[in-house]
Each structure stands twice: as C-alpha cells, then as structure tokens.
C-alpha cells in the first residue's frame, strides 16, 4: 500500500514539476502597454532608460501624476505601502505628466522625487505622449497591468489603496517577472545637506533670544537658530513633511502636513501635542463647529492668527479650504472654501479655493495664495476676492493687474505695508503686488531657475526679506539692495577633516604634477568674488590624512601659497561659494576633487582652479 502511494505521489510531483520549471523559465513578450510606457526616454531613479522588454511579464502599477497636485502627493504614501507589501511581485512606474510648464523640466521632477522620497522608476512625460496612449483624463490616475501585458483596472483620484491591493492579490496567481529593474536612486547621487527641501519658516523667541524656526520638511524636523544663524536646537516629534509654522506666546504651532494634523510645541518644556486632526486624510465636505480632535484634516500647509488672537487659520490644502481653530473651545470651523477646486469669489459656501498654500495677515485681512489657480486672493469680513489669477490653467510670468498679471503655482506670501510679496515658486521668483495700483510686478528672479529654485516661503523681519530657496536647500536675505545667503553656521561651518565622498557641482578633477610649494590661483568670472559669509575651503590630504586646510581668509584674494609639501601623492578637495559683485547678485557654489603629484624637480608651481558662471 505504501509503495503504491509513493508511486502515485511521485507521478504527481513529476506532473507538477514541469509547470514550475516552465514558470521559472517563462519568456515574456512586450505588449503595446509596455511600449507606451517606454515611449519617452527621460527616466529618474534608474541607471538607464527602461525598455518595453524590461517591463514584459510584470505586474505593473502605473501612476500618472504631476508634482504640484496635492491629490497626487496623497497617493505617494499609498504607493510606498504597496511597494513594501508586495516587494518583487509589483513594479510601480511613475509617469510624470506635467500640468505647469515648470514641471516639464527633468531637474525639477528630480527635486520632487527627492523631496517626497520616491524610490520607484519615474519617466518624464512632458508632452503627454504616454498620457494620450492610455487615454488618461485627470491627475492622479493609476492603471494596473497584469503579467500578460493587458490593462486590468483603472483608478481615478486618491483613496483607492484597498481596492488596488485586492486587485494585485488576484493577479499574483499568474506567473510573472520578478527580475529587478536597473534602479539607481536619485537620493544616492546627492550629497548630504543640512537643509532638505525646507517648506516654511517663522520668527519668534526661544530660550530668551530672537529665533528663526525652519520646517526642514524632507527631514521631518524643525530647526531653531538664532539671528546669527547658529543652530540652537533641532526638534524631532514624529513629524511628516511639516510645513507652516506659527509662533505665539512661547508656543510654536506646526502644520504637520503628512500626518494631517495641527500640532503645538511648548517651547518651555519641549512637549509636543496634537490640537486638530485624527491622522487620517480628510475629505472635502467636513461639518464645521466640531471637536478638533475628531476632524480629519487634509494636508494642512500654512497657519496664521486670524481673525483674532484666539483663532488659528489653517490652509487645508488637501480639501481646498481655509479652516479656523478656536484656541479656547478647541473646535474647528470652515472659514472659506466649499471643497470644489475652483476660483469662485464671495461668501462661504459659494466661494471655492484651489490648494491654499500660503497665508499672511494685514489690516484685518487674510491674504493667501491658491497654488493650483496660480492666484493671489484676500479674505475680509467673510468674503473672498481674487486679486491675481483667473483659472486652473491660467498661469505664466507676466506683470500687470487682474487678468493680465500671471503667477505660476505660488506657495508663500508676506504683506509689508502696501506691498504683497509672493514666493512665485514655479517661476523661481519673488513677485510683488502693489495694493494701491493693483498691479503685479517682478522683484527677484526672471521666471527661470537660476537665482532661486522654487522658493516656497518669504518673511519680512528686521527690515529684510527672508526667502526660503527650497530646491537649493538654503535661506536667502534681501535688504532691498543685495541678495545674500543666510547661513546656518553651526553645521555648515564645521569643516570635516575626513575625505568627502560627495561634493556639490564638481568642476575640476584633473590630476596635475607640481613642485613642493605650489601657488593656488582661483579664477572666477569677471566681476565676481568669493562670498565672505560662506564656508569656502580647500583641504589637502596625503594618505587619507589632512595636511593643510585653507579657509576663506586664505582664499579671498584668489591666490595663496601652500606650505611646503613633501614628494608624493596628494588629494585636494574643497568647495568655493562665489557671487557676482553687484546688487541682487547671483551666487553659486562649485567644488574641486583633484589629485596632486608633488615632485621637487617639477617646473610647474601653480594650481589653477577655474570656477565658471555656467555650471550645467
């Protein structure tokens, strides 16, 4: 009996084995869907362009997104959760089909990939080539493709994670390709920086001295520095992409955007508490006048004390609304925005907003920027009025009044007297709106990435404008005449004796042979200088040990002489910060990583370092 059973079992195993063997050796064919996804060639997070053959046989979730879109941002954590759950069984491909002109640029998409921690392959669909082949109609849209290369399901909007999960599970029974794609993460190509896509800032007091508070958004922390830029403290409190900050009576209120909460930091004790939000992402139609802890917020982006000292207005970007939190009753109510993404003026519930992202209070009025309609608006006595901007797809870089002046996805606003300064993010500029002439004017920048790179916030403090130059990971200062960088000195001024693996904007890596006492000559563009406020340096190493460090004081005259060097192999590394010597100057930074061979008999006694104006 046992022999018969064993024989029968062996027959079953022999019958099943070829199925598994064939599954392992399966050859997958690319389909029209795979060809469509790979019909564009600019890829991010990969070592090369992905081909249709790379995608054949995979279970693929295609995410059509654009980085301005709050709903698209809401989908990113869902994608990350699905990627973690299904591992090699699921391939996620991001197709970036830009709404705004600024979003068509690969480098700007790259910044968004870094900012939001995206680790799957992303293709730049700047001309909607892939979008059209899949007949996509809105952002975000997700499309599930089976191992056979056929579309299984299409999902519109956010909030579809559970349905997508179930649909993926139903496809796992099919044999499918699990081979890894040629992933090469953008984050692994970037040097570590102190600031990482900072979102908002605020001024106040901390431990008895004037302080600047910075939402270091991509690192999920709040940095506190004094007026000289010295870092006093860094607060970690389970934040997720924090944005808007509000200082009031030794408390710092935080728009904890990714956690969909309003939080309070007691600056005396350091205690962090949640005032509003459940942690779940809220929808468009929330009842007003209810307990704040029971209301699901949706990506709160900025905060302001309005309409009085007892209320905090929240720019609830994800639901296209302004909410108000009562500090006494601890209840929330709707201030403006019926939840429809549009640009209707008037009283609530007839007014509509589109991703409010920046707030500023002046003369009992709340000025705000609606990023998706590229508009500047004002709320007074319960009524919304639009000052600049006409619609969801009306954007650009133009001066003038209503109907003529154009912005592009502004994120920050600050009222100073009769002037409204605007962080016109996707125009890489600071604009100003004159409340008397009702005209929009240019102030800093020219509409292109250069002087600034997607500034997210602007504040006026002690006679100067502080600009959060987000994609450049820095803070800039403007006193009405010059543009300088505000350095966070404690971290940035520390020169590490260790050899650096990553140096920003490498411009010189050619090895040279020199004598024992070489002269270093720094060549800058005509009428440029080394920035005296920045931590420029050159270090010389031998056998991985620092033998000489040349700080700004030794480099400022653009030539210096090293101490006598012994014969042998050396490495020179350093970073130079340099600016045009003019009003509102452009500033750049570039680095060298240069092998030096020292020979006493060498006729060459000069190390020439060229730092160009164009770093592309």
Total helical elements: 9
CATH fold assignment of one domain: Glutaredoxin
> What is the CA–CA distance across the termini?
79 Å
Q: Can you say what the CATH homologous superfamily of one domain is? A: Glutaredoxin
Mean pLDDT: 91
Task: Give the overall form.
Answer: globular
CATH secondary-structure class of one domain: Alpha Beta
The tally of strands reads 42
The largest β sheet comes out as: 7 strands, mixed
What would you say this structure looks like, in words?
This protein is mainly beta and 616 residues long. Among the domains are: 21-189, Glutaredoxin (3-Layer(aba) Sandwich), CATH 3.40.30; 495-610, Sandwich (Immunoglobulin-like), CATH 2.60.40. 14% of the residues lie in helices and 38% in strands. It contains 9 helices and 42 strands. Strands 33, 34, 36, 37, 38, 40 and 41 form a 7-stranded mixed sheet that branches. Strands 1-4-3-2-5-6 form a 6-stranded mixed sheet, with helices on one face. The protein is globular and about 80 Å long. It starts with a helix and ends in a 6-residue tail after the last strand. The model is unreliable at 1-25 and 491-496 (pLDDT under 50).
